[in-house]
Each structure stands twice: as structure tokens, then as C-alpha cells.
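User: Run a structure prediction on this.
Assistant: Running it now.
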Amino acid sequence: MYRIDCLQFANWSETIFREMNEGGVHAVHVTIAYHETFRETVEQMARWNRWFEKHSDLIIPGRTAADVDLARETGRTAIIFGFQNPSPMEADIDLVEILHTLGARFMQLTYNNQSLLATGCYEEDDTGVTRMGREVIKEMNRVGLVVDMSHSADRSTIEAAEISDRPIAITHANPHAWHPALRNKRDEVIRAVTENGGMMGFSLYPHHLKDKTECTLESFCQMVADAAETYGVEHFGLGSDLCQDQPDSVVEWMRVGRWTKGIDYGEGNASAPGFPPQPTWFESNLHFGNIEDGLRAVGFDEAETAGLMGDNWYRFFAENFGPVGGAA
């Protein structure tokens, strides 16, 4: 069984890398850009290269499914790069291939707001995927950079699933029917993604959870069970959105970046300016075992549990991290 988390944005440190190791986490998709330019994103990659060198006993670069195998075999964690905004490609479609060559494997078409590619989930009018977005999706498909619609609006996500020749992902969100946060996904959105072979990672971020920080493990796992029964267990995994050890000041960069001089008044942002406390049953990479136990408790068998904990993401990586017809 693989143990894979398809989204974290922690304040990275040796402590967290060791917790990944002790928690048996074989791969983590890490956010290395929110609003960064191409050059700033390369600087983030350089910082990670230093960490790969310094902590080579704990982490390795994750560019292929084979890297996840290597991490599991050697007791380390494969680190997979992703962007929560298309800002690193700026307005240049040629940078899509360059970014993939440098190690990126996921890119969101938008982060909350309208972008050059699609509409974000906080916009009042969802005009769908733009003309440039259609071209960028084709280029992402060609090179093996996965389309991520976690912060995108409904129409945009449905269109992206239809436009893309390869499966797309929602790496970190939950069903809107379970908890009606703007960032959570309505039934028709989840159906569009899964019917086209895509994946969705369930989020542990309190604003995405029913009862937020007080959400129980049983409630979370029952939500997973209901989604699996409706759409097929093979389409789901975990994307915790864990922001461990981050100072509250980081939230301002995530939400505001450079697009406004004020405060982002999107859903709950003005009244909840910092990071909410995690549920006690999932506070760090040491706690994935709690989720595994919870999934068994609500009726998943061993193969289904393994799929949700990481095997489904591993299969998705193997099929989608490389160019069409190439090995991933």
C-alpha cells in the first residue's frame, strides 16, 4: 500500500520531513507557488534542491511514479511540485513545458480569482475556460502537467474536464453537499471530473470540513464512503491541504498576493484571517494512520482503504506525469 497526500503547504523543516518519514508517507504534492512569477518559482525550486541535498535521507524529488516506488523502498518521501495558480507560466505557453522539465507536475488553472485561463470559485460570474485556457490545457496534456481545478468555479471545472484529453484532478476539496463551502465541489462538478477518469483528494483543512475544527473522524470517513459509493472509490484519495507550522501572516500572501491592496473578502476570509486549528485526529503527517483506521471502521475493505490512502493517486501519477505515450 502507498500512503500519498496530494496537497500540503507546510512551513517546511527537518521536523516535518522526519514526521513524513515516521508517518510512512511515501509522497506529498507540495505547493511551491501561489502568485509567484516564473523566476520566483525557480527560486523556490532551488530552495527545494538545497533541502533535497541536506535531507537526502528523508526526501527525494518526485517526478515519476517510479520515484514514489524508490521513496517507499528506501524509507523516504517523494516531493512532487505543484502550483496553485498559473502565475509561474506568466502569459507564455512555452513555459508550460519548461516548468514540467523543471519538475512541476500539477498546475491549477486559477486560485479563487479569474485568471487568463479560467474562472475562480470566488468570482460572481463564471465564464468558464478561456481561449488561452483551452490552448494551455492542450499543452499541459501533451507534456504531462496535470490540470488541477481545486480553486476553480463550477463551469470552469466541468469544461476543463471535457476539454482535457487526459484526466484532470481536484487535489484538495470535499463535496459541497456535505459542507457548503465555496471551495467544496457540487455533485455535477465531481461527476464531470470522475466520469472523465479524474481524481479528487479529500481535504482536511478545517474550513472545508463539516463542523470545521470539531469535525469528527467518523463524519469525515462517512463522507468519503458516501462519495465513493456515488462516484466510485477508484477516483478518490487524500489531499489534506495541511499547512503545518505556518504563521498566520502567510494567509495574506495566499489570498491577496499582488492583486489587491486590501483584504480578500471571499468566503469567511475577513472573519477568519489566520489558520484554523486542525482536528485533533489529524494535526501532522504522523496521523495518517488515524484516517486509515477510520476508513476501515466505516466499511472499506483492505483494497479500497489502500486505494484511498494512496494507491489511487499512485496509479494516476503513473498514467499522467509524462508525455502522451511516454513512461511516467
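The chain is about 40% helix and 15% strand.
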